[in-house]
Design brief:
Nucleotidyltransferase, domain 5, six-stranded mixed sheet, five-stranded mixed sheet, globular
Length: about 260
């Protein structure tokens, strides 16, 4: 079995595969203050809930954008799983030509997203990932990672609004009944949700003008389910995109 782990700034998402089939997956908070043993115990119990024991894990692949957690999770996998994990970086075989000026600057999660999106939908394709940052990645018909856009994430903006204003309250993020808010909470919800929907559509429109063909637009990430339906450009939500990309990259590098 394969354990695929995506380490992000806000969440760690991991899933277990039996060949090409995902058995189960989990999302937990990224916490650099936890020890390798705490993570190991959590991973062990999660796998038990899916009837997959630690000893059944033969391979592990990791994509990470958080160096301190990378070291911690690597230590955990070697101690608990007795497996040396494949780490996705600019030297990993992906089948995608990285056209970034410095290929090492591209987050591993963005590359595995590109691999999965190109494999599933073909090219050209645009991936919108609603994570700690909201990222846009463009992949050509010829499987070239052209580059992308990085914008502040939704929760970062919401938290900044609360921290930098004296009277605005924290709110639960959900679509309001109308765009015009008739109270402070609804007004904030409208600004965040419809504001980001507008940001997505404008950025995607501009990316399309610089790409050949008609790109397919797919969304992933924790808040995709909330924002994507409010946009006109996003055609599909795929919450498994990053894990599926990790599985595909593993298949290319398992030797």
């Amino acid at each position: 079995m394969l354990l695929a782990i995506d380490i992000g700034n806000s969440n760690i998402v991991f899933g277990v595969y039996d060949e090409k089939n995902i058995i189960d997956y989990w999302r937990i908070n990224s916490d650099p203050h936890k020890t390798a043993d705490e993570y190991g115990i959590f991973f062990r119990e999660a796998l038990k809930s899916a009837n997959a024991g630690i000893k059944e894990i033969d391979h592990i692949i990791i994509a990470s954008v958080v160096p301190p957690l990378t070291t911690l999770i690597q230590r955990m996998t070697e101690r608990y799983f007795k497996v040396h994990a494949i780490m996705v970086d600019e030297h990993t075989k992906t089948g995608i030509k990285n056209c970034y000026e410095n290929p090492g600057d591209v987050g591993a999660d963005r590359i595995v997203n590109a691999v999965a999106a190109y494999t599933i939908y073909g090219g050209p394709v645009i991936i919108v990932d609603f994570g700690t940052a909201t990222t846009f990645c463009a992949v050509s018909r010829e499987s070239e990672y052209l580059g992308g856009v990085i914008a502040p994430g939704i929760m970062i903006s919401l938290e900044a609004l609360f921290q930098k204003t004296a009277k605005l309250p924290k709110v639960t993020l959900e679509p309001p009944e109308t765009v015009i808010g008739r109270n402070t909470i609804a007004s904030i919800q409208s600004g965040i949700i419809y504001g980001y929907a507008g940001l997505v559509d404008e950025v995607v429109d501009r990316i399309k003008k610089e790409m050949a063909g008609e790109p397919y637009v797919v969304a992933t990430g924790g808040l995709a389910e909330m924002i994507a339906p409010q946009t006109r450009n996003i055609k599909e939500i795929n919450p498994m995109l990053t894990l599926e990309g990790l599985r595909l990259v593993f298949e290319m590098n398992r030797g």
